Amino acid sequence: MLTVWSGLTLTPEPSIAAPAPGTNANSDDEHSRPYDTKLLRLAELLGSIHYLRELCGANEGQFWRDTMLEVMKSESTSAVRRARLTTSFNQGYRSYSRTYNVCTPIARATIDRFLVEGAELADGLIKSPQ
């Protein structure tokens, strides 16, 4: 499953995704993209996976954080966008660090579910119509 993520690079292409929460679909906000809802969810998933896989002994070091940094490097065109992505990643990390102190079967199932959801989101973002 890890190889699905290793080549993830996103470019700011238009898509049919809904606008980010709190934004207007007709907004000319230079910091928003039509696919931000999906991208921010992907960032949140990466944060959650980063925490949970380390908790469950995956010994991957900073793999998931580094993957997030690659997404940010290819996608973040402004400090505002970087901050939004960072906030989503940290939200995912923190929400599970408050919930899980030890690896459990439910934590492992959550990891599996998030890996699938993240791969689907990444694939959809990469294949978005131009």
Structural account:
By secondary structure, the chain is an all-alpha fold. The chain has one domain. Helix content is 62%, strand content 0%. Helix 2 packs antiparallel against helix 3. It starts with a helix and ends with a helix. The N terminus is likely disordered.
Task: List the defining traits of the structure above.
disordered N terminus; globular; 130 residues; 5 helices; mainly alpha
Number of domains: 1
What's the average pLDDT? 80
How does the overall form come out from the CA principal axes?
globular
Gap from first CA to last CA: 27 Å
What count of helical segments does DSSP give?
A: 5
H-E order: HHHHH
Q: Whole-number radius of gyration? A: 15 Å
Number of strand elements: 0
Low-confidence stretches: 1-20, 22-28
β-strand percent reads under 5%
Helical fraction: 55-70%
| Strand-pairing-aware structural class | mainly alpha
Main sheet record: none
